[in-house]
Design brief:
3-stranded antiparallel beta sheet; 12 strands
């Protein structure tokens, strides 16, 4: 960091770096309980090639949660209890949408479906104008820490995020499994 062509003193640089780190942490933590508000971030935080997964909904079997909805790459899709289904509305924007990227419709505004009833699939327009896929009215999201197909690390986060079932419901453990209730914000 420079000031009028000179390098800032070491103590000041460390203070500025620490302040920047704290501000970033506060931004992420501060919107954790509110679910975010304001303008939307679209596919921020998405790993892999989003063009391959956008607009594809299919099913996969999880030994603990049963049949789940995934994107075209096999990544688990989630629904958020703070959203609404009738009318559909997404309340996960900004930093929330970085951790929980919305599953967007393909360029034509539709979805390729495999094992999903097309009558249950629609879209909702996000604040940024993008079209997020919905299932039985519930907006669908990925969870950024789910790094490989089949991961379900977002299941039960903060008691408000749940893997989606093919009917748009919340996935719950089958055969006496215990759901994790991790804390991850939003």
């Amino acid at each position: 960091m420079t000031t009028t062509g000179r390098t800032a003193p070491r103590g000041r640089r460390l203070t500025l770096l620490a302040a920047g780190a704290l501000a970033s942490a506060a931004l992420v933590a501060g919107c954790g309980s509110s679910g975010g508000s304001g303008s939307s971030s679209t596919s921020a935080g998405r790993t892999g090639n989003p063009a391959q997964s956008q607009g594809t909904l299919m099913t996969a079997h999880d030994p603990t949660l049963g049949t789940l909805v995934t994107d075209g790459q096999g990544h688990t899709l989630y629904r958020f209890d703070r959203d609404t289904d009738h009318p559909s509305a997404s309340h996960c924007t900004d930093a929330c949408a970085t951790l929980w990227p919305p599953e967007l419709a393909n360029g034509s505004g539709s979805a390729d479906l495999k094992g999903i009833d097309g009558k249950l699939v629609s879209t909702v327009t996000r604040p940024d104008g993008s079209h997020q896929l919905t299932l039985d009215g519930w907006p669908l999201y990925r969870y950024a820490p789910d790094t490989k197909p089949g991961d379900t690390k977002g299941q039960g986060v903060d008691g408000t995020w749940f893997a989606a079932t093919p009917s748009g419901g919340k996935a719950m453990p089958v055969n006496g499994g215990t759901p994790g209730m991790p804390s991850g914000g939003y």
